[in-house]
Amino acid sequence: MAKATRKKPAVTEIDAPADARTAAQSHFRTLRLGTPFQPRIDALARTDDWYNWAGYRAPHSLWDEELEYFAIRSQAALFDISPMTKYRIEGSDAEAFLNRVTLRDVAKLKPGRVHYTAWCDDAGFVLDDGTLFRLSPTRFRLCSQERHLPWLLDSAIGSEVTVEEETEAVGGLALQGPTSFAVLVDAGFAGVDKLKIFDLAEFPHDGGTVTISRTGFTGDLGYELFVPAEKALSLWDRLMIAGELRGIRAIGYTALNRARLEAGLIVANADFTTAEHAIRTDRLRMPDEIGLGFMIDLEKGHFNGRRAILEARTKRKLRHVLVGLEIEGNIPAEHAIVYYKKSQEVGLVSAAMWSPMAKRNIALASLKRPFGDTMVEDLWVEIYAMRELQYQKLMKRAKVVQRPFIKLDRRTANPPADF
User: Fold this and answer.
1) Quick one: 320-405 is in which CATH superfamily?
2) What are the helix (H) ranges across 102-248?
3) CA 304, 122, 280 angle in degrees (round to 5)?
4) Is the pLDDT of residue 30 over 70?
5) Where is each GCVT N-terminal domain found (predicted)?
6) Does residue 21 carry a pLDDT above 80?
7) pLDDT by residue (tens digit) across 168-214?
8) Which residues pair with residue 401 across a beta bridge?
9) With left for phi above 0 and alpha for psi between -120 and 50, is residue 370 left, alpha or beta?
């Protein structure tokens, strides 16, 4: 039974000391939540460039967004992924439950492995995408961009399964870049060389354990580490000390976002609108419309949205396609409109950059079929570039190209090289 306690009378703003009044008046300027790694991140922040990630204070950049990007591609970059929503799902029916709510066949996911997946509503529209970690035969961790606890709990009714959000209880780090493997070896994680792409294992740390998976969001050699919140700072310090001679640097989201674009990876509510956030019906997307059709396993039996997805495929009801574009010139086409023959509007760019690795002007765009599908010629983007304090309209030719825009052999090399 819950225990009721009497609260002390609140101090009014008039009675409060001046410092307290100032804090009360400026509380809206400070995001409410800090991650388990926040003390270390705050100490490194030089740009004071923050954004709201699910209520957490997260950095766009920490010291220099350009150099932070190159830290990913030339050394080792450390990024705090703790705000990512994390669910612990376990029980004798956990596999069957996850098989019913996600697109891929969970029975094929062995303990000690990770796969990228997505889940849909009953109409076949994507609710979110994320990673599913199989920690044991009956225990999983599902990581996602958005929060889905009520939906997961409702979906679990009648199953021998427990679903619990552990976002605040578990700290997460992404360690990415060519020297990331060497940093882990130097930090004393014996046996990390045995991890192949999408493998995971537990390693001793500070009287407990840390889960390390060979996964990431950069298209580079990299790992993700999950640790109980109370052990987070000791893990951060262990990695930073070990990585000092390997060029380890903490980074913000802007650098990560550039790397993921080069890898051709999509972000929920940036490259597509999730079903729960869409206000207009024409913003809804099926997996095949955002490049996630490869996940769909029609052989595994029923799953959320199966009937609608199958009908859309057989009756050719798919309306959109997400494509990679190569654009002439070197001016990024962020949020540019895509045209056919410079006159007919056919889509919109969701992410764009000049890629230092690919040496190309690249973008992701959502187009109305058949454009980008069977019709890929004579596509143009409308870019507004600043020229001497005045915007100039530029029409640049766009070519549909395969993703990823770059492919690095070190990402999948076994064992990884000791850079």
Assistant:
1) Aminomethyltransferase beta-barrel domains (2.40.30.110)
2) 149-155, 180-186, 232-242
3) 135
4) no
5) 66-300
6) no
7) 999 999 999 999 999 999 999 999 999 999 999 999 999 999 999 99
8) 324
9) alpha
Kindly state the DSSP code that residue 268 receives in the 8-state scheme.
B
Q: How far apart are CA 260 and CA 277, in angstroms?
A: 23
- Residue extents of the structural domains in the chain: 38-83+169-262, 85-165, 320-405
**What confidence score (pLDDT) does residue 260 get?**
98
CATH T-level fold of 38-83+169-262 = Gyrase A; domain 2 (3.30.1360)
CB 100 within 8 A of CB 52: no
Annotated binding site for substrate: 224
Amino acid at 206: D
User: Residues of the chain with pLDDT > 70: what percent?
Assistant: 93
Q: Binding-site residues, please? A: 224
pLDDT at residue 17 in the model: 52
Integer Cα distance of 21 and 170 in angstroms: 34
The β-bridge partners of 213 are 200, 224
How far apart CA 124 and CA 315 sit, in angstroms, is 14
Rounded CA-CA distance 189/217 in Å is 22
Say what the pLDDT of residue 31 is: 54
Q: Is the pTM here over 0.70, yes or no? A: yes
Tokens of 24: 């009360």
Alpha-carbon distances of 56 from 40, 207, 255, 274, rounded to whole Å: 15, 28, 18, 21
Tell me, what amino acid is at 187?
A
Domain 85-165 has CATH 3.30.70.1400: yes
What phi and psi, each to the nearest 5 degrees, are found at residue 417?
Answer: -75, 150
